[in-house]
Amino acid sequence: MKLTSFRRLVQIFIFILFSLSMQSGIHAQEAFPEGEGRQAIFVSCTQCHGLGHLTRVSLDSQQWENAVYDMVARGAAIDINDLDTIKNYLINNLANDR
User: How many angstroms separate the CA atoms of 34 and 38, rounded?
Assistant: First the structure.
């Protein structure tokens, strides 16, 4: 009897965690305005980071540019054709000096 109750409790806990993580992702997506580069951010950056990470950091334009190049140097799978688009999107929409 105790094992069954424990399993049920674990299932409920997992369901709650999953539900919260889904809501977090939805809210993070809403923080990104429509524009060229938005989809590239979702595809490229989320391979290593959650979207919330990008909205929590406070970087100026130069720091965003450096961060993008740093991620590429660390092996981020960013399509070279998307590099400037991603950099410009982050600077134009998330830089704290704009």
Answer: 6
Show the CA angle centred on residue 12, arms to residues 3 and 27, nearest 5°.
155
> Which stretches of the chain are DSSP H helices?
2-30, 38-44, 51-56, 61-73, 83-94
Measured at the CA of 27, the angle between CA 22 and CA 32, to 5 degrees, comes to: 130
Residue 96 pLDDT: 94
- In this structure, whether the domain defined by 2-94 belongs to CATH 3.30.70.2740 is answered with no
Contact 64, 87 (CB under 8 A): yes
Residue type, 35: G
Q: Could you tell me the residue ranges of all domains in the chain?
A: 2-94
pTM over 0.70: no
